[in-house]
Write a structure and sequence with these properties.
globular; binds nicotinamide-adenine-dinucleotide; alpha/beta; 255 residues; Rossmann fold; 8 helices; single chain
């Protein structure tokens, strides 16, 4: 599917790594001006883009869990560009803990980045998105709909993000808001499961349980994101797009 986002302004949170970086690169390749934001400024500055596209790549530090940072970042976008065509709420992290182990700090951190931040970013971006007829894509997770050990807080935040997406559609119908539920995608976030050869073994085991027999690639989620922001999805709003190689279907099959 060919995408053309020439002249469009897109803001991606968590754009220095993994899925966010793949999304930001795909938008850049499709002609957009990309405001690539992340809390990890060094990683963001280390991202190399083609010289011919460099003036459309705007890297900015933004803590997606901070209301002050979000407000300041959106005000900057408005003053710099006067508009925004797409907001991609992608920033994330995972702290695997059983409910018995859950610490208040881990709850606050995950809640702030995974749910509060997307809510505040959507609120702050909405006036620009309503004027441009733009789109929001929230990156949730299949954790929102399956039980995964140690994911209680993460899952609850992601389930909240799925629900919030529907409220965005109800209260702001001019902006198409959709949510993607990725499955197991091979990015640095999987280090929450382990390191080195132990992690590689976990990935092989996971792949064996996925109907498509491989982990997802960050670009699998990027393609879905561009589709949802494009004219090909002009009538798609409030969709929950599962991109998981079939994991959810297998889970149901085994129940
Ligand atoms: N990889 C998977 O298997 C998977 C599955 C389902 C959902 N997701 C979701 O996809 C999104 C991207 O994850 P990923 O797999 O690319 O992980 P990743 O670790 O590769 O990238 C996450 C990025 O978010 C950034 N980030 C973390 N906290 C931030 C903050 N407060 N403000 C701004 N940026 C912040 C990190 O610096 C990093 O660059 C996350 O929301 C994650 O929950 C990932």
């Amino acid at each position: 599917m060919a995408f053309d986002f020439s002249g469009r302004i897109v803001l991606v949170t968590g754009a220095a790594s993994g899925i966010g970086l793949a999304i930001a690169r795909r938008f850049l390749d499709a002609g957009a001006t990309v405001v690539a934001t992340d809390i990890d400024e060094a990683a963001l500055q280390a991202v190399q883009v083609e010289a011919s596209a460099a003036e459309r790549w705007v890297a900015r530090r933004l803590d997606a869990g901070s209301g002050a940072d979000i407000a300041e970042g959106m005000a900057w976008v408005e003053s710099r560009f006067g508009t925004l065509d797409a907001l991609i709420n992608n920033a994330g992290l995972a702290r695997l803990e059983s409910i018995a182990e859950l610490s208040e700090d881990a709850i606050d951190l995950q809640f702030n980045v995974l749910l509060k931040g997307p809510m505040l970013a959507a609120r702050a971006a909405m006036p620009m998105l309503e004027r441009s007829g733009g789109a929001i894509v929230n990156i949730a997770s299949i954790a929102a709909v399956i039980q995964a050990a140690g994911h209680a807080c993460y899952s609850a935040c992601k389930a909240g993000l799925v629900k919030f997406t529907h409220d965005l559609v109800k209260e702001h119908p001019k902006v198409r808001s959709n949510v993607i539920l990725p499955g197991f995608i091979d990015t640095p976030i999987l280090r929450a499961y382990g390191e080195g050869e132990a992690l590689e073994q976990i990935k092989r085991d996971l792949a064996g349980h996925i109907p498509l027999r491989r982990l997802g690639r960050a670009d699998d989620i990027a393609g879905a994101t561009l589709y949802l922001c494009s004219e090909h999805a002009a009538y798609v709003s409030g969709a929950e797009l599962v991109v998981d190689g079939g994991v959810i279907s297998t889970t149901l099959e085994n129940m």
